[in-house]
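Input record (one chain):
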Amino acid sequence: MSTRRAWPAVVAVAFGVFTVTATETLPIGLLPEMASGLKVSEGTVGLTVTLYGLFAGLLAPVLTAATRRLDRRRLLLVILTVFVAGNVLTAVAVNYVWLILVRLLIGFIHGVLWAIVASVAVRLVPPALSVRATAVVFSGISLATVVGVPLGTMIGQWLDWRAAFWALAACSVVALVSTAVLMPPLPAQGGVYLSELPRLLRAGNLRTAVGVTAVVVIGHYAAYTYITPFLLRNVGVPPDMVGVLLLCFGAAGVAGNFLAGAVIGRGPSLRAIVLALIAGTGGSMALLLAVGDRQPVAIVFLLGWGLAYSALPVALQTLVLRSVPQAREAATSLYVLSFNVSIALGALFGSLALDRSGPSLVMATGIAFCAVALLATTFLRPDATES
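The corresponding structure, as predicted from the sequence alone:
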């Protein structure tokens, strides 16, 4: 494709990522409404998010291997079609069993999207623009957090939680149609059998990248999942300001995402960038814990955390792609497995810390995992991290 035709296709893929991410996380903003409508507890509704993520992560390598010969455009269209159907079925769910079965179905296919989307982005543009294309596609995640979930939550609160999922189904249709129109055929490349996935981990940088991803994601979600009680109790933020601060955190994340796309490949080594971003993430947490109730300073460090952490997926995904360039999608499926399972583990560790000692221990847990990730990153071979 010419560069002029490639970017609309990249944006279409990014919008698909936006709708998929919003589908995964929207129940978080609608827990009370969905619980009331389906006559279950909020924690029970929350399980639909946890199980969704576990399904997506654990099945990503299996389904990536199973679909290794399918044209990537056709596979993306199948995935988006499932999300259209899934959001419609969620909107008309008559009970909790219906809801959980639909969520598991969507989670089943979700991991395949994450395994292929980065390799699709880099194939649509010239090699020199591959990192920028990856950043654009990954911006769909940040935009879903900053725009999609808050907007869906407002729709659900103003009208009904089902209306929010009808709106999300409409967005999924737009993503499906735009992908069908703008994206060219992309024959499968570098397909790997499931039995060969362990062999990929013999590549030292990939093994380190997957390990670093696991540790830093556990650290982030251990702290971020329970950031609300920390802001309320430790920083003394008024309850009506928490939502505003989380929105600012997400906006900082969008900026970090695009900053990573602009910096990677244009100066510092990728190893140095990953080290700096992990240090920025853990350091911001540490300073946030240290400043206590000095709110203006605490807010600065909160935004620094959002900026640094949201740039990490672009850097880590680029590291994975460069570690095993001959098997990008298979390597990414292992990255997806590590990322999604670590989200669930992070939330679990954070919950244990909160119950044991309160929000301060939650933040300290996140800091400790970031320190381990920083140490693990030093094992990357600098010569093998560059394109």
